[in-house]
Structure formats: C-alpha cells, structure tokens
Design brief:
The chain is mostly helical and 105 residues long. It is built from 3 helices and no strands.
Length: 105
C-alpha cells in the first residue's frame, strides 16, 4: 500500500502581517472586531492569502456609540450612527442581490 504524503506548507507570517495591516486599515477602531480579527489573521497565515473565501456568507450589522458622543470625543452626532448602519445594511442587501443574479450556482 502506498503512503500518501499531504502537501503541507508552513504558516505564512508575511500573510499574517499583511492581513493585520489590511484589517487595521478598515474604517473601524483598531481591534474593534475583537477575536474575529485574530481569527482572520490566523486563517490568512494558514491559507497563505489575505483574500479569504467562504462558501456560505452572512453579514451582521452592529451599531453603537458607547457614549463617546456624549463624552465629546466623537466627530459626528449620535444620529449619524444609525444612518451609517442603515446605509451599510442597504449596501449589503444590494450586493447580495447582485451576487444572486450574476453568479451561477
């Protein structure tokens, strides 16, 4: 019986670093996605790419100002938070609609 050797390569530190840079450049506070950021960095190293792919996708939209506006450290008024969340949600729905119409399954 022939033994099959898997083609395994090491975890790419350069892809991990590139993913962290990519995540830190998103429009959100540094570390704002918590453990999801650490998971993405790990997967990028394993997959050896910063272009992560998933078969099934979903989108969660969370919005809060956590009192930063009342503390005087926010650049925008509180009403902008829900408007941004709604805009993001509508854009996500449009993207999903486009994906369903253009990608053959």
């Amino acid at each position: 019986m022939q033994k099959i050797k898997p083609n395994l390569s090491g975890i790419s530190q350069s892809c991990r670093d590139a993913m962290q840079t990519k995540i830190d450049g998103l429009a959100k506070p540094i570390g704002g996605l918590g453990q999801l950021e650490a998971l993405a960095v790990k997967i990028a190293g394993i997959e050896q790419t910063t272009e992560l792919r998933t078969e099934k996708r979903c989108c969660f939209v969370f919005a809060a100002d956590h009192g930063v506006q009342r503390a005087g450290v926010s650049a925008t008024p509180r009403k902008v938070t829900w408007q941004q969340a709604l805009t993001h949600l509508l854009d996500t729905q449009r993207s999903h609609h486009w994906q369903k119409r253009t990608i053959a399954r």
